[in-house]
Design goal:
- Helix 10 runs parallel beside helix 12.
- It is globular, with a radius of gyration of 27 Å.
- The termini are far apart.
- With 417 residues, the chain is mainly α.
- It contains 20 helices and 2 strands.
């Protein structure tokens, strides 16, 4: 142990964290999951989620720890710094970003490094982990070993575990909610979620494990009741719940009242129970992060722009849930971008899914198609739609058609005599 042998004196630190999802995934989380809408281009307003980080709508909460960020009249712990240098850790980086860690009376640098090495981390991996999350050395070895045992409940082996710690050290070294984390892991396993999905949750949506397990159970039970009341079957309910959670675990940060109110809003707007279920599946649960007022505003805006009846509006929303999901400012920006490209409102009404794409993506795709001589103004917008992969496939087909020589296999061959 580095520093005086006295027991750590409790100090207060309240760090406000805003958990958001990136379009694609949260910081450095390539290959985790992004909790997007039906297409990769989707993103929640207020939610920048590779991320995984994918997208609780401006969820924030306090994490209270036992360390201080007060740097006045404090000196750095020389033994802590010496131990970090011996591990080839960039102390200047820590000093610049989280100097308060270096000011604590007690730290466990060698002990925490030793535990990481036991799990298979080499010297470079240890240095990378502690540079990114230096507060890890302020936890006792007992706390870290408990966290290690907890994550082993869902990891295949320690090789996978150390890889996850290296990618997401902050998630692993948040030990303040250990009992809640354990209870929620066991609950998710009982629910039927696979361990690889639970590890994704631990790394990309760790805050859902900080809830008391009773809170998460209440949300799941609310979803189950509503699913059945909307005409869903008992046989399919478990599959539906697991799929919904896998796509968007941040549903668990909502409350049962918000879920009920949003479903009631859709029913009051004449969506049938079957159509509501259809929307829930298409929106991957993000509808529960909206409010009745914002949904109402978006629907009124769409009705005015497209000059349609209530039934036509409902059909448009079912075809393109983005009209319900995105705020009026977002829809205005995307419509304006399309109109500037010479696309008509009638074309957009025919293919509203194009509003799922950002203005930048639309401009890029139009430019690529125009280079092939494809006139988007007179053609269909279907060629713009879809994921990046979908677009590249369509683009390739158009390119091949343009380059393919016209050949009639039954035409006579003219040979000069």
């Amino acid at each position: 142990m580095v520093g005086p042998s006295a027991v750590r004196r409790p100090r207060s630190l309240c760090i406000r964290l805003n958990f958001t999802m990136l379009r694609g995934v949260t910081h450095g989380a390539k290959g985790t999951f992004t909790f997007l809408l039906a297409r990769p281009q989707h993103h929640n307003r207020g939610l920048n989620f590779s991320s995984v980080r994918t997208e609780a709508a401006n969820r924030s909460f306090l994490i209270c720890s036992t360390y201080t960020t007060d740097t006045k009249s404090r000196e750095e712990n020389k033994k802590t710094i010496e131990s970090l240098y011996r591990l080839s850790i960039d102390v200047k980086k820590i000093r610049r970003l989280k100097e308060w860690v270096l000011l604590q009376d007690v730290a466990y640098v060698q002990e925490i490094a030793g535990i990481l090495q036991e799990m298979g981390a080499d010297k470079a991996a240890v240095a990378n982990i502690l540079e990114r999350c230096p507060e890890a050395v302020l936890h006792t070895p007992a706390e870290i070993n408990s966290q290690r045992a907890l994550w082993q409940l869902v990891c295949q082996n320690e090789k996978q575990l150390i890889k996850l710690i290296e990618q997401f050290p902050e998630s692993f070294f948040t030990t303040e909610y250990h009992e809640n984390q354990k209870a929620n892991i066991l609950f998710f396993q009982e629910l039927g979620l696979k361990n690889n999905i639970i590890t994704r949750f631990l790394t990309s949506a760790p805050n859902i494990f900080y809830n008391p397990v009773e809170k998460n159970k209440d949300i799941i039970e609310t979803l189950q009741r509503n699913y059945l009341s909307l005409g869903g079957s008992d046989a399919n309910m478990k599959i539906w719940i697991l799929k919904l959670l896998s796509q968007n675990p941040f549903i668990l940060l909502n409350n049962s009242t918000a879920i009920r109110e949003n479903l009631e809003f859709l029913q009051k707007n004449d969506f049938t129970d079957h159509e509501v279920l259809q929307l829930l599946s298409k929106l991957k649960g993000f509808i529960f992060q909206l409010t009745a007022s914002t949904m109402q505003e978006s629907m009124i805006f769409s009705k005015r722009v497209f000059k349609c009846s209530d039934q036509e509006l409902k059909d448009l929303v079912l075809k393109c849930p983005a009209l319900l999901y995105y705020s009026v400012p977002v829809l205005e920006e995307r419509l304006e971008g399309l109109l500037k490209e010479g696309i008509s409102v009638a074309q957009i009404k025919e293919t509203p899914m194009v509003l799922e794409l950002t203005t930048q993506i639309v401009q890029y795709r139009i430019k690529k198609l125009s280079a092939l001589g494809y006139d988007i103004k007179s053609g269909t917008l279907e060629s713009l739609n879809g994921t990046k992969k979908d677009f590249e496939v369509n683009y390739g087909k158009i390119q091949s058609k343009k380059e393919r020589p016209i050949f009639n296999p039954v035409a006579p061959i003219h040979v000069e005599e």
